[in-house]
């Protein structure tokens, strides 16, 4: 008498026969995503950049292409960046680490962290001021069209306080 449960055997076999995903750092998933965005155009460029960055951040960082992705101006440019990643990953093109580029990326990251720290201090000051004046916080903050107050390439708008 066998003590093997046929349901367990079927499940194990079923899962063992599933095809393995390509070891390409989710590049195939990103290309599939872009294909669907072309067929069903519902995502904005910012949304596409966000999703591709989330899918392929490790590969993009490894090949120093994350900033280029963030600065891309079209879906075609995103596809080109992903193609470069794929060629590097497959060994069709040689990747050379650019120390100068890494230094600039590190400086940009430090600047963003500093601006975020300043933003938190600013909101703290405005919260205390709103409480002291008895007004809503939103009445004191200058609105920004950029989520999180980040304005790339310009002074952050949250540095300018409303005169109350």
Description:
- The protein has 164 residues and is mostly helical.
- It is 62% helix and 0% strand.
- Helix 2 runs antiparallel to helix 3 and helix 2 (27-39) packs antiparallel against helix 5.
- The longest helix has 35 residues, at 99-133.
Number of helices: 7
Q: Rg, please? A: 24 Å
The average pLDDT score comes to 78
How many strand elements?
Answer: 0
Helix content: 55-70%
Determine the N-to-C terminus distance: 85 Å
What structural category characterises the helix and strand content? mainly alpha
Strand content: under 5%
> What is the global morphology?
elongated
For the largest beta-sheet, the strand count, sense and barrel status come to: none
Q: What is the string of helix and strand elements?
A: HHHHHHH
Which stretches of 5+ consecutive residues score pLDDT under 50? 13-21, 150-154, 160-164
Topology:
Layout: H1 6-16, H2 27-39, H3 45-62, H4 66-70, H5 75-90, H6 99-133, H7 137-140
Which labels suit this protein?
single chain, 164 residues, mainly alpha, 7 helices, disordered C terminus
């Amino acid at each position: 008498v066998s003590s093997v449960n046929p349901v367990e055997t079927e499940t194990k076999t079923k899962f063992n026969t599933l095809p393995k995903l390509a070891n390409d750092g989710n590049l195939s998933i990103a290309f599939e995503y872009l294909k669907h965005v072309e067929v069903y155009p519902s995502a904005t460029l910012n949304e596409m950049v966000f999703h591709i960055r989330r899918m392929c951040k490790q590969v993009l960082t490894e090949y120093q292409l994350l900033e280029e992705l963030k600065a891309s101006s079209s879906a075609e440019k995103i596809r080109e960046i992903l193609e470069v990643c794929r060629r590097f990953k497959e060994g069709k093109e040689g990747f050379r680490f650019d120390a100068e580029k890494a230094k600039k990326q590190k400086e940009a990251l430090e600047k963003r962290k500093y601006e975020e720290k300043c933003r938190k201090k600013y909101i703290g000051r405005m919260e205390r001021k709103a409480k002291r004046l008895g007004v809503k916080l939103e009445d004191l903050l200058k609105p920004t069209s950029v989520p999180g107050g980040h304005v790339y390439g310009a002074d952050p708008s949250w540095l300018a306080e409303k005169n109350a």
